Amino acid sequence: MLASPKIRTGTYADFHANNATRGIVYLPTTSYSEMNEWTLPMPAAGIYSSLLASEKAAGRGDLHRPFMRGGIWRNFLTRYPEANWMHKRMQGLSARLAEIPQPPQALTDVLYRAQANDAYWHGLFGGLYLPHLRRAVWNNIVALEAKLDAIKARPATVTVDLDFDGKNELITHTPALQLIIRDDGLAAAHELSSYPLCHNFGDTLRRYHEHYHDRIAHGPSSSEHAGDGIASAHDIVRFKHPVSAEDIVPDTLPRALWLDDLDGNSLNDYRLSRPDGLQFERPASQKLRPGRVDRNSHLATQRPGRPAFCNPHSPRHAQL
After folding, report:
1. Distance between CA 79 and CA 250 in Å, rounded?
2. H helices of the chain, where?
3. pLDDT of residue 124
4. Where are the domains of the chain?
5. Distance between CA atoms of 76 and 60, rounded to whole angstroms?
6. Distance between the two ends of the chain, CA-based, in angstroms?
7. What is the DSSP letter of 257?
8. Cβ–Cβ < 8 Å for 151, 160
9. Pick the residue with more confidence: 276 or 314?
10. Alpha-carbon distance 230 to 310, whole Å?
11. Other beta carbons less than 10 A from residue 160's beta carbon
12. Please, are residues 317 and 255 in contact by the beta-carbon 8 Å criterion?
């Protein structure tokens, strides 16, 4: 290609320097059309999908498709708090790395690996839903943070709204572990990272209602394709193993670590009582750091690392 007399390569800057502008154009954020559908939440995604299908059936699909854009890529960060948390953790480390004059290339490489886009969204081939993709990003996030801490130490405990969701996170760490608890009423750990292992044990994903789940009830699509050409991968429904309606019931709570349950009901009314001590309380009970005992909350240690508290007004225990 480079040897062809008909093709000349160059940068945008070179072209701009040697050619007069032919007008102004502002480019929107955009992507291929299927992503604009996947990034929408329910029920908007279902409505948008039905609109596209009806226009296609009426023979107006190609004519009207440019004006039916759907969502934008950043909607993935609002749809999936897990992706947003991973993204904001990566951005925070990127900002710390930028503060270092001439940072080592090795650290920049780790940051770039943490920015691999596949794990921050999902499409036809899983993306965010694939644990090994998220794990690879988290491996590099945790590894980079450990290296940055070795260069410049940070406070052992801080409170900050790191992911900009309006709820503070309590971040406490040692050279070996980092624990992050969100002040969202659950008093549960949303991240538990091991620096020696470069692993986040809180890397989970709750089950969400996706609009394409509605197609599961119809079973696998027929191998026969009506029309010219071959069937689009986006129109094919196949199961690697049987999937029932019970398998896709959405979770009502995030899959955080140490969620409390009392008499079959989730406890979500904790409030932070001591910002400096990672202590939460709710009516007649408290949730404390391991190793601490509070007579009023009847805290008892069942086994190392597994403290439990009991509500003096209930015969049942809630475990941490």
Report:
1. 13
2. 12-18, 33-38, 44-57, 61-64, 75-79, 81-98, 105-114, 131-151
3. 78
4. 75-200, 261-319
5. 28
6. 63
7. B
8. no
9. 276
10. 62
11. 10
12. no
Confidence label for 137 from pLDDT (cuts 50, 70 and 90): very high
**Would you state the pLDDT for residue 307?**
36
Distance CA 118, CA 101 (A): 30
Q: Which residues, in sequence order, are CB contacts of 231 under 8 Å at separation 6+?
A: 221, 225
Q: Residue range 15-39: average pLDDT?
A: 87
317-319/177-182 β-pairing: unpaired
What type of residue is 260? D
Tell me the two tokens of residue 42. Answer: 């329910």
Q: How far apart are CA 105 and CA 113, in angstroms?
A: 12
Residues paired with 159 in a beta bridge? 170
Strands 317-319 and 306-310: antiparallel
What pTM, to 2 d.p., does this model score?
A: 0.80
- Top pLDDT among 224 and 194 is at 194
Q: What is the DSSP pairing of strand 199-200 with strand 261-262?
A: unpaired
For the chain, the farthest-separated pair of C-alpha atoms sits apart, in whole angstroms, at: 86
pLDDT at 273: 84
The residues near 79 (Cβ < 8 Å, ≥ 6 apart) are: 39, 41, 208
Sequential DSSP letters for 102-151: S--HHHHHHHHHHT-GGGGS--TT-GGG-HHHHHHHHHHHHHHHHHHHHH
Closest CA to 194 of 148, 278, 138, 154: 138
Residue 309 — very low, low, confident or very high, per pLDDT cuts 50/70/90?
very low
